[in-house]
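Annex B. Sample input.
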Amino acid sequence: MNARLLAALLAVSTLSQAAHAQVPGKAPVPVVPGIPLDAEQAAKGAPAPPPPPPPANQTPLPSDAQCAPLPPVKLPLAFGPGETLEYDVDAMGAKAARMIMRTLPLKDGALPIEIDVATNTFFSKVRRVKGAGTSYVSPRTLKPQRYFEDATENEVHRVADVRFRPKDHVAHLMSNIDGTTYEQDLGHVNDALDVSGTIYYLRQMPLKAGQAMCFDAYGIRRMWRVWGKVVGREHVSLPVGEFEAWHIAGEAARLDLPAMRREIHVWISDDPRRLPLAALGSIDLGTVRATLTGITRPGEKQTEAETRANLKW
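Annex B, continued. Sample output.
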């Protein structure tokens, strides 16, 4: 997601992925183009720099024992093939990109979930990003079987193909950056999700105020530990409607460099559709926010925010 909130990890992530976000007040994050830092530095003939020390006020990374398995998702699913959700992505106080999340028809027994992101003309002067990430999940458990990403940031083309082996607690990464291929096994504990599928898993989780959660998730060619809690129900006003929503807040830390962290905020509607209404995170350029502006679902009237393009005078 060449720009991924890890989540919403999420959804906004798709705009911060390649940048390795820096959250204000937290440790600075060096830009890593997609291969392990030591291998990257070795290729340049330079030693790898030491990892940044964790800030004194940084919360401890949950241990494997503390990271309990996620609860199973509730069935039937609140979404299905044909659902399309559109988002405006804001960065640096201005509209930066358009993001589209689609649920595609079943393929080889898996449910594909695709996220497309492209920066607009204004933001492309700062950072030009265009790409897509697709998670192939089980339609019954929403656990990922495969994650595929193809994105270009400025002039750098990156492809990542991740195969999940849950019995081995491993995600196998095949990465290609401008023709250079790299391969790696990424370990995880209990549950492993990915940046495209995570938000959909959260849509199907039973939620209640104060509920804690912890899981590992693939993103930016690394495995991250994500933990947080359900803050509670909040009223959310959007151009597409008024909603009561669950607010989920947490952090994501790279398992190989726990000092590298991101804050995460996601709002999911507390209704039968369980819509991901908004996501908030940070990249090196500042706060990034994704806001729902369009809803297309089979059998329902299309909903979209009013803009100059669709206003009728």
